[in-house]
Design goal:
The complex is a heterodimer of chains A (597) and B (225).
Chain A lengths: L2 H4 L2 H7 L25 E6 L2 E6 H4 L16 E2 L4 E4 L3 H13 L10 H10 L9 H28 L8 H10 L5 H24 L2 E2 L9 E2 H4 L1 H25 L3 H6 L1 H19 L6 H7 L15 H12 L1 H25 L11 H12 L12 H19 L2 H35 L4 H18 L14 E3 L9 H4 L3 H5 L19 E2 L11 E3 L6 H13 L14 E2 L24 E4 L4
Parallel strand pairs in A: 1-4
Antiparallel strand pairs in A: 1-2, 3-4, 5-6, 7-9, 8-11, 10-11
Chain B lengths: L1 H23 L23 H7 L4 H14 L4 E3 H11 L6 H11 L6 E3 H13 L2 H12 L6 E3 H15 L9 H15 L6 E3 H10 L1 H7 L7
Antiparallel strand pairs in B: 1-2, 3-4
Helix pairs in contact in B: 4-5, 5-7, 5-8, 7-10, 8-9
The chains are: A alpha+beta (597), B mainly alpha (225).
Chain lengths: 597, 225
């Protein structure tokens, strides 16, 4: 209910007196009205800008920050006002929402800042008024796309999980050629061969003067047929190998086979094989020649190499409805005008308009303003209708085209923006490194906290440079329980199960990625697989500082220990959550598997 | 017949005008729309002291009420459509237009088609702070649609139908046509003392004052403001 209409509630309730005499049953008792205090003014000080409003205005929406008792947390006794350390410009809109019941979105504001303010004050954005809703949704969509792009880049570029299987490495190499030099080489080689193959197809048909000075000119393909055949074979072999490799490396083969690019690949190499199989049979040689047409599809393989082609294809796909409409309206117009032209020209002698389908050609050529001139109307009526036809053709084609163009432009600019952001990211990070001076108090306290964490789990945070994969089989004898309190001092139970590694290697145990290895009672664990985790950027930078600022006594500790925690049932995923209740004195140990990606 | 002919002629004239405009290519929108101008009426109530005298509300209450009112109706008057819209918000499931219309007519003492703040607040003061007599008078006034001093069975049927319409379709048990008539019959049995088919204000007032339930329920909104 809109806020303002709530002001009418007393009237509505009073009018309900009209029901009383006709009611047959007694009425329910009225709700307890808490005796509202004086309807006073509330002063809201938002970063220095004072806003004032009636208490009632704010209390219209009791599930927001300002309408509920949550605002008491922001009450500032000395100045007897509510102080919010937020943006006053955006607050204006929020306060207007209370006053008018409609939330507006200011176009000049940044969408994320606005969303944050809304979230802070507990207002759901879905109630934005109709006047501003479109704009808000558009901006939001752009923002999420931008975030998605960033995430994709993050995911694809930075993490190099080292122990990916060979298959996964291959797939990565195929999809992102920039990841490794081998992939880049492969990328360029295939590109080169695609170009060579297409050129060969083209040059094949050029007429070459034959040596024997025969009257008939033969095409180069027939003259140097062996050379071209060898070239074709080489290209097809490369394409086949590439396709098979991609097929093997694909994480989901079924999906890969269904994808457009793989279909193009198949279509590109099929004619050759079919030709090999059927080359002896004379009857189908004609068909075989036709098949060669399909070789031109190899040019589409370039779309893996060119983002622009992909964008074009994507645009066409997304404008399918507009294209369909264009086609449909053109077809209608063609049929109409062809009919008219046929009957108009029926009378004239030696008219080329022999039938309506024949007139289709004229109509298409005229509507697209090509005007070959092979068919022209001769009668006056024909000429009149022909001119109307050409005028309307311009209109019909011109209408859906801007829609397609704007779609293409939007998608293209999106991809441009993604590229630009990727380029700017490097400079942005460099800039940020200069700008953010760390707050020393915060840093020391944070480091202390992490240090405590390390002590608790008896593991250390690892520096990214010294990161290495290690798969270790650790056989565990009867592991003694280690409670949280004795965790730090219990290497005795653990040292028996670990081996020393030469370098300082340890691994961090961020909370969120612990997986309880085994549940239930485990008397004895034969092996533990401990793998190290990669750190993400922020962590690693933190760790880098960590290593510098706080000298660890972990320098001496150079063994990898298994995180053995005995827990009572139910199993707990995080080992650091030390408080596990009383641990009974049996050998229940949930081995926590720290597994890398 | 002549009206049809007149209409035809009007249509023809409009059509020729349209063609003329098409040929000459003017892009002006129809000028006929500008004929209907919304007459903006501004009305503001008498001063606060006057209203305080006329009603049983205190100063703060009047201020509160007026602020809410002014927020919704900046022009100072409520016309029937606005009133219906406002009511529709309170009863979204049902069709409140008929009952809102009856209410509007009951509020609108001077029958000028719009409610001013004074009319509203005076009636409100009667309903919330008035004596039982006054409340019953008001209710009678509401039921008496043609304001002739008598409630007939048809008027009552209309009123009750409109009240049942407020509920909407999704009620349990399902509303039967007969139920409303039954309700009217019960009402008349109770109120129509001399069985003459109409209920006058005295009969109404007497019967209501004898009924405990009604007396009780008249008081429940007393602190609505």
């Amino acid at each position: 209910m809109a806020a303002g209409v709530a002001a009418w509630l007393p009237f509505a309730r009073a009018a309900a007196i009209g029901w009383m005499p006709v009611a047959s049953t007694p009425m329910p008792p009225p709700p307890r009205e808490k005796r509202r205090g004086q309807d006073g003014l509330i002063i809201l000080n938002v970063s220095g800008s004072r806003f004032q409003t009636w208490r009632n205005t704010l209390e219209r929406y009791p599930d927001t920050l300002l309408g509920s008792t949550e605002r008491d947390f922001f009450f500032h006794e000395e100045s007897n006002e509510y102080f919010f350390d937020r943006d006053p410009d955006i607050f204006r809109h929020i306060l207007n929402f209370y006053r008018t019941g409609k939330l507006h979105y200011p176009r000049h504001e940044c969408i994320s800042a606005y969303d944050e303010e809304l979230a802070f004050f507990g207002i759901i954005p879905e109630i934005i008024g109709d006047c501003c809703y479109e704009e808000y949704k558009d901006r939001r969509r752009e923002n999420t796309e931008r975030i998605q792009d960033d995430e994709e880049n993050e995911n694809s570029k930075d993490m190099v999980p080292p122990d990916m299987s060979f298959r996964e490495t291959m797939w990565r190499a195929f999809e992102n050629p920039h990841t490794s030099t081998m992939a880049l080489v492969f990328y360029y080689v295939t590109g080169f061969f695609i170009a060579v193959s297409v050129m060969a197809n083209v040059v094949e048909t050029v007429p070459c003067r034959s040596e024997q000075n025969r009257a008939k000119e033969v095409s180069c393909g027939e003259r140097y047929s062996v050379a071209f055949f060898c070239l074709d074979t080489a290209c097809v072999m490369i394409f086949t190998v590439e396709y098979l490799l991609r097929l093997i490396a694909a994480p989901s083969r079924y999906k890969f086979v269904k994808s457009v690019m793989s279909i193009i690949d198949v279509v590109a190499i099929m004619p050759y094989y079919i030709g090999l199989v059927m080359s002896d049979n004379e009857d189908v040689s004609g068909a075989f020649v036709t098949l060669r047409v399909f070789r031109v599809f190899r040019i589409f393989k370039f779309s893996r190499h060119s983002a622009g082609l992909r964008i074009l294809g994507y645009t066409l796909k997304s404008c399918a409805s507009e294209l369909g409409f264009l086609l449909f309206s053109l077809t209608m117009a063609i049929i109409i005008f062809a009919t008219v032209m046929f009957y108009a020209e029926k009378g004239s002698t030696s008219s080329k308009f022999t039938s309506i389908p024949a007139a289709f050609w004229y109509t298409i050529v005229t509507m697209t303003t090509l005007g070959y001139g092979d068919m022209v109307p001769k009668t006056i009526m024909g000429k009149i209708f022909g001119s109307i036809c050409s005028l309307s053709g311009v209109l019909v084609i011109a209408l859906p085209v801007p829609v397609i163009v704007s779609n293409f432009s939007r998608i293209y600019h999106q991809s441009q923006r993604a590229e630009k952001r990727r380029a700017q990211k490097a400079s942005k990070q460099a800039g940020q490194a200069l700008v953010c001076k760390t707050n020393p108090t915060f840093e020391t306290q944070h480091h202390h906290l992490l240090h405590c964490l390390e002590k608790t789990t008896n593991h250390e945070f690892v520096d990214e440079q010294t990161y290495e994969t290690s798969c270790m089989e650790v056989s565990l004898a009867k592991a003694s329980m280690s409670r949280s309190s004795s965790m730090s001092s219990s290497p005795h139970g653990l040292s028996s199960c670990c081996t020393r590694r030469n370098k300082r290697k340890s691994f961090n145990v961020p909370n969120s990625n612990m997986v309880a290895g085994r549940r239930g009672s485990i008397q004895e664990l034969s092996t533990i697989q401990i793998r190290e985790r990669p750190v993400n950027n922020s962590r690693s930078s933190l760790n880098a500082k960590f290593e510098e600022t706080v000298p660890l006594n972990s320098e001496e500790q150079s063994y990898i220990t298994a995180a053995v925690i005995s827990m009572p049932t139910p199993p707990v995923t995080t080992p650091e959550s030390g408080a596990l209740g009383n641990c009974p004195d049996f050998l229940q140990s949930n081995i926590v598997r720290v597994s890398a990606l | 017949m002549s009206s049809r002919r007149r209409r035809c002629k009007r249509q023809l004239i409009k059509f020729t005008q349209h063609i003329a405009r098409l040929i000459t290519g003017t892009l002006n929108s129809d000028n006929e729309d500008e004929e209907q101008e919304s007459t903006t009426v501004r009305c503001h109530p008498e001063n606060l002291e006057q209203l305080q005298l006329q009603t049983h509300f205190c100063r703060q209450e009047l201020q509160l009420l007026y602020r809410g009112f002014k927020n919704e109706c900046p022009s100072g008057v409520v016309n029937e459509d606005t009133f219906k819209n406002i009511y529709a918000v309170f009863f979204p499931l049902g069709d409140s237009s008929k009952y809102a219309q009856f209410l509007f007519n009951a509020f609108d003492k001077d029958k000028n088609g719009s409610l001013s703040f004074e009319e509203l607040v005076c009636d409100l003061s009667v309903l919330l702070r008035g004596t039982t007599e006054e409340k019953l008078n008001w209710a009678f006034n509401l039921y008496d649609i043609n304001k002739d001093g008598k409630i007939t069975k048809e008027e009552m049927l209309d009123i009750l139908k409109s009240i049942y319409d407020l509920m909407g379709k999704s009620i349990h048990p399902r509303l039967k046509e007969e139920a409303v008539r039954q309700h009217v019959r019960i009402f008349f049995q109770k109120m129509d003392i001399n069985q003459d088919g109409v209920v006058t204000i005295d009969e109404f007032s007497d019967c209501c004052q004898k009924d405990e339930n009604i007396m009780q329920s008249l008081k429940i909104f007393d602190n609505a403001v």
